[in-house]
Amino acid sequence: MESKIREYFDDMVVYKDLQKCNFFKDLSLPSFLRDWLLKMFEDEDGNFDMDELTQFIHEYIPSKNEWINIKNRIILEGEKVKLLTRISIDISIKNQEVNFALPDFGITTKDTLIEDFIWNRYKDDLVKAKESWGVVELGYRYPEDKIPGKIKLVSFKNFCPYDIDLEFFKDVRNEFNVHEWIDLLLGAIDYNAKGYDNEEQKLAMIKRLLTFVEKRLNLIELAPKGTGKSYLFGNLSRYGYLSAGKTTRAKLFYDIARREEGLVFYHDFIAFDEVQKIEFDNPKEMTLTLQGYMEQGTIKIGDKNDVADAGFIMLGNIPQENMDEYSCMFESLPEVFRESALIDRIHGFIKGWEIPRMNEGLKICGWALNSEYFTTIMHLLRNDTSYRVIVDELLEYEMNGADTRDTEAIKRITTAYMKLLFPNVRSVRDISHRDFMKYCLRPAVKMREIIVKQLGMIDSQYKGKSLPKFLIRNDYE
């Protein structure tokens, strides 16, 4: 299997050994950055020079504790310093000045500057998103008269390890059967497929990726501790955001005072970690905003009337005795997540107790897809609407009495499954009915069915409600 992955994906493959190497764990690097470094320093056998890699990290990825020394080099010694880090841009409405922030070092826009000629040279890379990864070169503009000194951007090289060809990725899927492809996906997200007892466990893990590939897909996962939720949603992709503790409507959606857009505008998904402990500064206000957004992606706050594409996934730890879809599992969650109107807008439920607790045997050790490459592929798949067209063509159901939220939820999840497991599908004829039913439709129905059951236990209005029966159209049988 590894030789097959290397044959077809070539430069997009790296050797990962998470079982033995704690080197990267000690550095707390996200997976996409770790794999970028591995690709840069590994030879064709997967070996790398530890000293050479350590030197690069020390020079380009310093810790926050080294920032005083870096400031000394830039400001007092007149050096130009390069860092591999995140950078965000702000353009002043008052004076047209362009400033930047380096969140990893606590550097805000008030202490920085991008001169006009530098901005014109690098703006195409810097305006693609609110936050970009890259190699930033920093210098200093010295104070003059009443003009204060500022750290300035000297150059920027966008962090983009590969030229991503989505059509190539789709075509390569034809060279793997579905079982091989499932194993390939697990390796891409740092898991060892051989560590799972069966395919059901593997597919339970892959459910977590659904929100990576489908816009505004809202899910909830309740699980025991130690199954790797925080790791996957917080470290795998630079396109997602893991939120924990207290949060505000301003941070998530729109800050009226600053006239600043929130996280949903700049990320593919927002994951609420340990949702049973999360706090909102104004729960009622947040509930109404979440309900409106989760329904249609709309944001109406003050003078802001806009739409965004980020999905929400709620991650919670619940006691073992509560892990039962036939009993109420939402009792221990904050009041916001016990509102039936909001729960109805959650498309599907992930039974996290079906995912094995993290152990050494589940850590990848071998050749696998580069995490940065794969997460970028998932990011690009979000914009591909052809899969939803195919799902709509394939499915039929009794229209009378079919709840729109139920049908939409099932179609969205089915579409996400197709993107992940059958990206090569370009028409209804490209997927067998058996595979479509087994790997896409039935799991989607089951995920929505649990939400409907929970709604019936929370609100009598939903008690006894059933889902419409989905079938494949006669034209395609």
Strand content: 15-25%
Shape: globular
- CATH fold-level topology of the largest domain: Rossmann fold
Helix content: 25-40%
Strand order of the largest sheet: 3-2-5-6-4
| Alpha-carbon Rg, integer | 24 Å
Per DSSP E runs of 2 or more residues, the count of β-strands stands at 20
Q: N-to-C terminal Cα separation, in Å? A: 33 Å
Task: Enumerate how many helices there are, as a single number.
Answer: 18
Name given to the CATH homologous superfamily of the largest domain: P-loop containing nucleotide triphosphate hydrolases
In terms of quaternary structure, the protein is: single chain
Protein name: BREX system Lon protease-like protein BrxL
